[in-house]
Specification:
single chain, alpha/beta, Helicase, Ruva Protein, domain 3, Rossmann fold, 7-stranded mixed sheet, 11 helices, 7 strands, globular, binds S-adenosylmethionine
């Protein structure tokens, strides 16, 4: 008689490892990874190994992190100084600590201007799998009453973003949530989904389609890197295929452009098919 693997014990084994224990990741994410590997016929040890590999791609520690406690102190000092320049200086340093936002730094604020020229300036904005991107708010040109809802599964990042939003005078509306397992239903004018759709495909091939359809937003702005992290591999055709495959048969219009090697797909979901 085969004994079914104890998913909770395997989950605890992964989450208590030195690599992940400070991140307070949602256990549901790891349980989902393990269940899918086990359902594919792997043994408990094989599932553990495969789930660890997928979690590495999801959390992507190689993209970089600030020292979160120090980052909060730097933000407090900048808010205390009541100086836009000081705040922008700190935000720039923090944005530079993660590869996704570092690559965007030379193009602030042009990057957001170009997006909002297509979508119009939002009043309610979602930042999905946000990383440190909300720290670019001082360059986004958004109205003071903006409702900014950010989502990430990395708890120290979510805490830092809430710390920043409160100091910036906005509600602390960053949520720790696995958005693939629980797609945000918050209605919004625009949702950012930057530099993550290709990793979603690595986690579960084809999952972007249901995810993009589940959102309750007028515009979905997906960005993807035009090249690999090392700059050695051209990715543009592959990324366009990902977007085209995901949107097959949907009536949504896409406006594509590129800024600083980041491919931007502004997807207008208002024509039929929206949630
Ligand atoms: C490559 S970074 C991109 C960050 C940001 N979107 C940007 O481009 O500046 C990916 C981020 O997505 C988060 N993430 C990955 N999978 C997620 C999921 N299923 N739900 C919520 N956040 C997720 C990671 O924790 C990480 O902070």
């Amino acid at each position: 008689m085969s004994v079914s693997p104890d998913i909770d014990a395997l989950t605890a084994e992964i989450l208590s490892s030195p690599k992940y224990r400070r991140l307070d990741l949602p256990p549901g994410t790891v349980q989902d990874l393990l269940r899918r590997e086990l359902a594919a016929g792997r043994t408990a040890r094989e599932a553990l190994k495969a789930a660890r590999a997928k979690l590495h791609t999801i959390v992507a520690p190689y993209l970089g992190d600030p020292d979160y406690a120090d980052a909060a102190r730097q933000l407090d000092a900048a808010f205390g100084a009541d100086s836009t320049e000081a705040l922008q200086q700190v935000c720039q340093t923090l944005l530079a600590s993660h590869a996704s936002t570092r690559e965007r730094l030379p193009h602030l604020p042009k990057f957001y201007q170009a997006i909002f020229e297509v979508t119009s300036t939002p009043h309610i904005l979602l930042d999905l799998a946000c990383g440190l991107n909300p720290l670019a708010l001082p360059w986004m040109g958004l109205p003071s009453g903006i409702q900014y809802h950010a989502y990430d599964l990395h708890a120290p990042r979510v805490r830092l973003i809430n710390h920043f939003l409160s100091g910036y005078g906005l509600p602390a509306s960053a949520h720790q949530q696995d958005i693939l397992l629980e797609a945000p239903r918050q209605p919004a004018d625009v949702a950012f989904f930057f530099k993550e759709a290709h990793r979603f495909e690595q986690r579960r091939r084809g999952c972007n389609r249901d995810f993009w359809q589940a959102l309750n937003v007028d515009w979905l702005v997906v960005t993807l890197p035009g090249e690999s992290l090392s700059g050695r591999h051209e990715k543009r055709d592959q990324q366009r295929r990902l977007v085209a495959r995901t949107l097959t048969g949907l009536p949504w219009q896409v406006t594509e452009f590129e800024i600083g090697g980041e491919m931007v797909f502004c997807i207008d979901r208002r024509a039929g098919g929206g949630a």
